[in-house]
Amino acid sequence: MNKKLTIILSVIFIVIIIFFIFVFVTENKPIEGVGDKISSDTSNMIDKTKSIQHLELDEISIPRTLPTTLKKSHNKEQNKRANRKEIIKKPRQLETYVPSDLGIQEMLKNDLKNPTRITGSNPLASLGFSKNMSNVLNSKNPHNLISLNDMPEQLRNSIRLDLEKRKRNGFDEVNEKDADEITGILRHIINTSDAINKLSFNKSLIPDVIVTNYDYQGYTFPNYTDHQSEIITYGTLRRVYYRHNTSHLLIVEERSLHSGGAALIKELINSSVDDLPAMYVLKKSKLGERYAMLSWVTSNFVYSLYQVGNIDDSKSILHFVAKEITNLNNIE
């Protein structure tokens, strides 16, 4: 009798222990979906804080005079000493480059993957470009221009159509990815330091007019989000600045000509920086984001300046800043 009672009590005790274990585990188990929801909400909140809110842009009205809000400082010599580095002499390599906005770089990039199309001492001729284009690119003279007639027929016709649309609409329409690289550039900032990694050349000096009137935000490279996991030495640099007391962005884009040449297309020239040919254009995405761009070539660099935000004064601002950059860096 005592043996049976002992067995019964043991079984009851084991059942009670199992019950308490079950209750404890159940009470401490996360409710299904709650953790995911919290993570999702947190992620959305982080994304929202990172996103850039652009002001609604007014209709474009280009002033004829330089806005008085830009002040010039007289500390140029101090700025030069702070920024200048010894130029590294590198051997000249075969390299052809024109600004990507002119539609040629992408074509070259794709065609150069097919070496069977590139033969002889003039590889551009194998791609349908004229000998004159090679001569212009190799001259390193920023006053020398290439013509649409120097290009393959398909590319020539494409650029002519784009030029007709620009004249008709007053702006270039760009795809969302390209527009986001400019209007959303703060999301692509790599570092806020002035020391720049993975750069294949010595960056140009920043003039005092930018130092005095803008706050440095950091730097990035074109298409950085596509290549950030790869080991790449970048040949084009973008530095980003906020204009004081505004939400207006200034982007200084540059590429060194130490290993190749560059030229603008004669038919697209509509402006000048000092006495150098230049192209000024307004750009607009299908979502309505607008920005201004000014491109020109010096004997040492290819430059493009972008203004994002209120672009009413972009023509005057960009031309003034471009002149200062050119004077500071166009040193033979």
Overall description:
The structure is a single chain. By secondary structure, this protein is an alpha+beta fold. The chain has one domain (76-329). The protein contains 11 helices and 8 strands. Strands 1, 2, 3, 4, 5, 6, 7 and 8 form an 8-stranded mixed sheet that branches. It is globular and about 50 Å long.
List keywords for this structure.
332 residues, alpha+beta, 8-stranded mixed sheet, 11 helices
Global morphology: globular
Strand proportion, as a percent range, falls in: 15-25%
Low-confidence stretches: 22-65, 74-120
- What is the number of strand segments? 8
Transmembrane segments: 7-25
Keywords: Membrane, Transmembrane, Transmembrane helix
Layout of SSEs?
Blueprint lengths: L1 H27 L5 H17 L25 H8 L21 H7 L11 H4 L4 H9 L13 H17 L2 E3 L1 H8 L24 H6 E7 L3 H4 L8 E8 L5 E8 L14 E3 L2 E10 L4 E8 L3 E8 L5 H16 L3
In short:
The protein has helices at 2-28, 34-50, 76-83, 105-111, 123-126, 131-139, 153-169, 176-183, 208-213, 224-227, 314-329, and strands at residues 172-174, 214-220, 236-243, 249-256, 271-273, 276-285, 290-297, 301-308. The protein has 332 residues and is of the alpha+beta class. It has one domain (76-329).
